[in-house]
Every structure is written in C-alpha cells, then in structure tokens.
C-alpha cells in the first residue's frame, strides 16, 4: 500500500514540476495561435496568421538571418578556440590550469550587462560595434566554455589506449588523433557547438549594445516589439525560437548517443 | 569456405629482440632496473611477475611508448631506441582490447593495413578476411565492437594485431579480463596461431600457469629486475631463488642448515632435527654451515608406503586434508614447518586429521636455494 502512495506522490510531483517548468512556453505557444491582436492566454481561437505575418515581413526574416549569421560565426570561433583549449586542459599538465579553467567559466557567470557595457567600450576604438563579426566575437566568449566543458567530459571518458592501439598499428600520432580520438569524442564537440549557437541566439543585452538597432537579431527584435507594439507576432517568433531550441536539443541527444548504431541493430 | 593456408599469413621470420642494460625510472622510482634480455627470433616469451614488477613497462618500452633512460633496445641487432612506435612495425593486443568503437570489425582489422600499406581494395578485403578466419570470426565483419562479447572482442583485437603480418607481436595480459573457460580456450588458440605464423610473441601475464603452458621461454620479473630467464621447465624445476620457486607453482620451502657437503652429496638438517641427504650433481652446492632453503615440490612428495626406509621419509602429523574430486590436498606438520602434498582418495583410506603420517620425498628432485631471498 505504501508503495502505491509513493508512486502516486512521485507521479504527481513530476507532473507539477513539469507544468511549472513548461508554463511560460505553453503560454507563449498558446498565445501565438490567437486570432485577435491581443496577446492573451488561453487563445480565443486558432489561427496561423501571426506566423504568416512573420513569414511575409522582411524585418522578421532579416532578424532570423542576422541571428543565424551571428550564431554560425560564434559557433565557428568557439570551436576554433574551444577544441584546442579543451584538449590542452584535459590532456596536458598546463601551468595554472585551475586559473585558466576558472577564467573560461567566468564568462558564464559574469552579468551580461557588465559584459555588454565593457564589450561596447572595448569595441569603440576597434570599430567593431555595429558589425556582425563584432557581436559574434563577443558571443564566442560565452560559447567557448560550452565547447571546452563538453569536450573535456568526452575526453575524460576516452580510453587513451585507443590512441596507442592506433599508433602501434602504424598511424602517425597526428593521424591517430584525427582517425580515432576525434571521431570518438565528436559527440562532445557537437553538443558544445550546439550550446554555443543557442547561447548566441538567445542573448539580448550584448546584442543590443554591439549591434545597436540597425541590424537586429531575433532577441533584439523581440525586445523592440515588446516595447513598441505587443501583438501575437512576438509569441509566434518566440515559438519558432522554442521550436529551434527543441530541434537543437534533439540533435544534441542524438550526438550524445554516438555515431554507431544501437546494439543488435 | 576455404581454409586459410598458413603460408599466406606466415611472416618472413620472427624478429629477434634484445634489451641491453635498459633502465627506466618514473618520478625517481625504478620501473626497470638494468635489464638485459635476448629474445630469440620466432620464440614465444612470457614476461611473468606480480603487479609492479616492471613487466608492462618492459613491454611498453619494446612497443616504443616508453623511452629508456639508459641502455639499448635492438631488433635483429639494429638499435631502434630512436624509432617511434608507429614505425616499428609491431602488432599489439591490449588487455582492454582497445577496439575502435566507431568502426566495424572489418574497419578495425583493416586499420593497420590502411595505415601501413597501399593495398588495393580487394587485396585489403582478402587480408582482413584471412585474419578474421585465423581467429575464427568470419562473418562478423559488419558488427560493431559493442555488439560483441569480451572473447570475440579479444579475437578482433588479435586479428587487428596480426593482419599486417608483423614480425613481432606484443600481448599485454590479453586474457586478463576473460573468464577461466574462455581463457583456457584462447590460450590454445594463441599458441596455435604462434606456430602458424612464426612471428616472435612477447606475452605479459601475471598468471604463472599461462606462462608455463604457452611459452618457449619465461622471464620472471620482480622489483624491476629479471629474477630468472629460462625455459618453462628450467624456471619451474631449477628456480634460482625462493621467489621464483614460490611464484611458479606450489612449493614447499623449508629452512635448513647444511651440515655436511662432500663428493657424495649435501646433508641438510631441518628445524625439526631431521637430516636429509641430497645427492651431488645439483645445480648448486653450498659449504657446510650455510643457511639454505630446501625446495620440495608437492608432486615429488607422497604418502610413504609401509616399509619405506626411514632415510627417505619425513615424519609428521596430518594437519588438514581437502577433497578436490580426483585427489586430496594434504597439509602435514613436521616440527615448526608444514608440507603440502597431493594424495589419491585410495591412498587416504581411513586417514584422519591428527594422525601420524610418513611422507616419502624424492632426494633426486629436491633442490637447495640460498636462504634469505
């Protein structure tokens, strides 16, 4: 009897926690289907017109493109610096390893407004404000830690004997890393890259400061919308972002499961 | 399915491996202490010893993963200390199998060929299939390592090590992770493969039975040094010290003192006062007064038949008898020392613990070793 109560309590708390966590998303997605101009939940009907509105509006399309551009460059830069850093930090006895790791992670905990202001001031003499590249560089500071952390986790579970096996059977050490180590830890790198992209796509404050209002990524465009005219387009755009994030998490989960097929496939 | 013609896989000849005064220290601790070894081309040599004795370091040095601090390493009398591992043309089998998880069995086995040769696709496939057939895994080409049992994974690992027809094959406790039945099976197979290929095999193990059954020569290692190097029979029957005697097989080692030594033989006195005379012609002679250890293997002892002369027996009391199915293991107290021996259930008759027993010993097979080792 006790066991049944346990199961019931467990189930109820799981549902409660999930509702609590998903509440904002449910509201946003619900509101995006509202047929009227009011941003309300539950919706008074069902309509896709706000999605059509987005698809037909060059401002929104442009915002998506800017987000993609910034995200792509951010991801590239994060990989370019994060992969070697991840290897160095988990493979070698680096002097000041703890300090370097702490500095890398500090990008994750530093208040965004501080990063935004300091990046802006730093960029003024460099002329990097109002450039896609400038924003991508700023975002990659937040992306590199994700790559380093995820690659580090993969490398810790990587059996170094595999590399020895490759070398003793004729592979130059560099080739052993390329043909054995990289493919085996690739899921960790991919997950890190996806996180790097996502943190760029949802970042608001640095984007406002660096890109100003001439070119707007989605996050900034949403913020503008909230300040100027609240209507369900915002909910529709947000829903699309949620959808993209969901897709990314799905990709990350697939990458974690590895490239090889399931047992007995 | 056609049978593999051993000649197809047979290497030109095994490589001779020589270590000359090789040493290696890790953070001040000697892992290998001035070791010299001469491993004959084509032989099967085991490095045997407890963990920490330096056997794996020695193997890794031959592989090239560890650089010696001093001394020289030669393959066929050519120094190779400065040649990196990927150019040494060696095959290696690891205890953890070390199969590449993202590759199929075929790609795992083909890896050395792809790294070292420029074979045409059909030749490559033929070589991989030959190697898999040699380890009895034909038909597993498209599986991934995680879909195989431990024994199958080790077979793949062996095929990968052999496919390039290396003249030297290194095996680092390859059967250590497998259960006993599978281990016994694979021991026989590895031995067969060695005979077919003619390569030199260097095999690290801490299992003395494995070393004795498989090898042409055994290197017994202890504390970073070679305790003895010889054929399995030599190291078993004529151990040079008590460590080797007790590490290989069961050994009764009794402290004794040499009371007389002359052309007739050596007489030793045990702690219980019994005097035993060993015929001359043993490997070692000690001067009278030396403290020694008397080595009596259990198989050279037996319950004495009635009427056996007293000079050929040791008197004691039965301390323990353990039934093993086909035989009994007997523990006999003789003074402050104990003897272990085997007896058939028929010999036991109505013997019981506490009974006085007479143990016959074979003077010709007893050995004397320096005490204090």
From TrEMBL, chain A:
The keyword Transmembrane helix applies. InterPro entries: MetI-like, MetI-like_sf. It is found in: Cell inner membrane; Cell membrane. Belongs to the binding-protein-dependent transport system permease family. Residues 64-252 form the ABC transmembrane type-1 domain. It is a multi-pass membrane protein. Keywords: Cell inner membrane, Cell membrane, Membrane, Transmembrane, Transmembrane helix, Transport. This is ABC transporter permease. Signal peptide: none annotated. The keyword Ribosomal protein does not apply. GO terms for biological process: transmembrane transport. Its main location: membrane. It comes from Ancylobacter mangrovi. One of its GO terms (cellular component) is plasma membrane.
UniProtKB/TrEMBL annotation, chain B:
Residues 17-248 form the ABC transporter domain. GO terms for molecular function: ABC-type putrescine transporter activity; ATP binding; ATP hydrolysis activity. This is Spermidine/putrescine import ATP-binding protein PotA. Keywords: ATP-binding, Cell membrane, Membrane, Nucleotide-binding, Translocase, Transport. Belongs to the ABC transporter superfamily. Spermidine/putrescine importer (TC 3.A.1.11.1) family. Its EC number is 7.6.2.11. The gene is potA. Part of the ABC transporter complex PotABCD involved in spermidine/putrescine import. Responsible for energy coupling to the transport system. GO terms for biological process: quaternary ammonium group transport.
């Amino acid at each position: 009897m006790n066991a049944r109560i346990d199961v019931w309590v467990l189930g109820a708390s799981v549902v409660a926690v999930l509702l609590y966590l998903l509440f904002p998303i449910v509201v946003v997605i619900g509101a995006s289907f509202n047929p009227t101009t009011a941003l309300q939940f539950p919706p008074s009907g069902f309509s896709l017109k706000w999605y059509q509105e987005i698809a037909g509006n060059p401002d929104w399309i442009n915002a998506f493109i800017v987000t993609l551009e910034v995200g792509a460059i951010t991801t590239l830069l994060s990989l370019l610096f994060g992969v070697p850093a991840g290897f160095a930090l988990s493979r070698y006895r680096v002097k000041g390893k703890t300090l370097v790791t702490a500095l890398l992670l500090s990008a994750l905990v530093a208040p965004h407004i501080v990063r935004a202001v300091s990046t802006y001031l730093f960029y003024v003499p460099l002329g990097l404000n109002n450039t896609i590249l400038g924003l991508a560089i700023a975002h990659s500071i937040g992306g590199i830690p994700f790559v380093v952390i995820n690659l580090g986790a993969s490398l810790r579970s990587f059996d170094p004997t595999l590399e020895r096996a490759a070398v003793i059977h004729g592979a130059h050490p560099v080739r052993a890393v390329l043909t054995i180590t990289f493919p085996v830890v690739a899921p960790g790198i991919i997950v890190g890259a996806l996180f790097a992209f996502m943190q760029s796509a949802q970042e608001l404050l640095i984007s406002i400061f660096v890109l100003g209002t001439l070119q707007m990524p989605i996050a900034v465009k949403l913020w503008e919308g909230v300040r100027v005219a609240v209507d369900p387009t915002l909910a529709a755009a947000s829903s699309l972002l949620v959808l993209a994030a969901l897709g990314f998490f799905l990709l990350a989960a697939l990458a974690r499961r590895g490239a090889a097929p399931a047992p007995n496939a | 399915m056609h049978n593999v013609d051993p000649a197809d896989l047979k290497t030109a000849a095994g490589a001779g491996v020589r270590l000359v005064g090789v040493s290696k220290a890790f953070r001040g601790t000697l892992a290998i202490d001035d070791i010299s070894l001469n491993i004959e081309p084509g032989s099967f040599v085991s490095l045997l010893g407890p963990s920490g004795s330096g056997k794996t370091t020695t193997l890794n040095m031959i592989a090239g993963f560890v650089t010696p601090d001093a001394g020289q390493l030669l393959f066929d009398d050519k120094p190779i200390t400065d040649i990196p591992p990927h150019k040494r043309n060696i095959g290696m089998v690891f205890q953890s199998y070390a199969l590449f998880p993202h590759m199929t069995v075929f790609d795992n086995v083909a890896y050395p060929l792809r790294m070292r040769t420029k074979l045409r696709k059909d030749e490559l496939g033929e070589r991989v299939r030959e190697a898999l057939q040699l380890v009895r895994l034909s038909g597993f080409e498209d599986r991934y390592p995680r879909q195989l049992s431990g024994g199958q994974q080790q077979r793949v690992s062996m095929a990968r090590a052999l496919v390039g027809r290396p003249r030297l094959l290194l095996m680092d406790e390859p059967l250590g992770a497998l259960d006993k039945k599978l281990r016994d099976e694979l021991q026989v197979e590895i031995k067969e493969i060695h005979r077919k290929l003619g390569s030199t095999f260097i095999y690290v193990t801490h299992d003395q039975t494995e070393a004795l059954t498989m090898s042409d020569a055994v290197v017994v290692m202890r504390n970073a040094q070679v305790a003895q190097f010889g054929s399995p029979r030599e190291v078993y029957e004529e151990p040079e010290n008590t460590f080797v005697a007790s590490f290989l097989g069961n050994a009764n080692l009794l402290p004794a003192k040499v009371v007389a030594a002359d052309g007739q033989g050596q007489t030793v006195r045990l702690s219980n006062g019994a005097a035993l005379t060993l015929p001359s012609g043993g490997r070692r002679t000690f001067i009278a007064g030396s403290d020694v250890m008397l080595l009596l293997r259990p198989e050279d002892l037996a319950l004495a038949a009635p009427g056996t002369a007293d000079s050929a027996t040791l008197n004691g009391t039965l301390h323990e008898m353990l039934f093993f199915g086909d035989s009994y293991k007997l523990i006999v107290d003789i003074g402050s020392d104990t003897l272990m021996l085997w007896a058939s259930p028929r010999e036991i008759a109505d013997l019981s613990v506490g009974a006085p027993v007479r143990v016959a010993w074979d003077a010709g097979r007893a050995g004397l070793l320096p005490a204090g080792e």
